[in-house]
Amino acid sequence: MGRFSDIINKDKPVLVDFFAEWCGPCKMMSPILKEVKDNLGESVSIIKIDVDKNQGLATKYQVKGVPTLLLFKNGKQIWRQSGLVQKQELLSLLKTKI
User: Fold this and answer.
1) Is a pLDDT exceeding 60 seen at residue 1?
2) Structure pTM?
3) Which of 9, 13, 74, 80 sits most deeply, having the most CB atoms within 10 A of its CB?
């Protein structure tokens, strides 16, 4: 857990994708996240957390369904949404947080 807290305690926004291998919508989220990262580059970090392999983190952040996206800045959760999020919506949100 120590490493996760180090990652989210950055000045730049960190988007965390809680996903599962068996989840269809999660698979659809991956290319969207790649396009967002390609678009925003180093101004944002995007990490993926497999809920089946990281049940402690999923419990800590009350992730009940996947995909669930959480946005952190300076260690604080500043946004959260469950389900598929479209690229434009994510880009708009992240641009206001950078």
Assistant:
1) no
2) 0.94
3) 13
Q: Which two tokens stand for residue 84?
A: 């598929």
- CB of 52 closer than 8 Å to CB of 20: yes
Element holding 97 (H helix, E strand): helix 87-97
Find the catalytic residue in 23, 47, 57, 91.
23
The tokens describing 83, both together, are: 């389900």
Residue 32, Cβ neighbours under 10 Å: how many? 19
**25 assigned to active site:** no
Residue 14: CATH number of its domain:
3.40.30.10
- Give the dihedral sign, CA 84/6/34/88: positive
- Is it true that the peptide bond before 67 is cis, omega within 30 degrees of 0? yes
Catalytic residue check, 35: no
Tell me the pLDDT tens digit for each residue of 35-88. 999 999 999 999 999 999 999 999 999 999 999 999 999 999 999 999 999 999
Q: Which domain holds residue 77?
A: 2-97
Which member of 20, 26, 33, 51 is catalytic?
Answer: 26
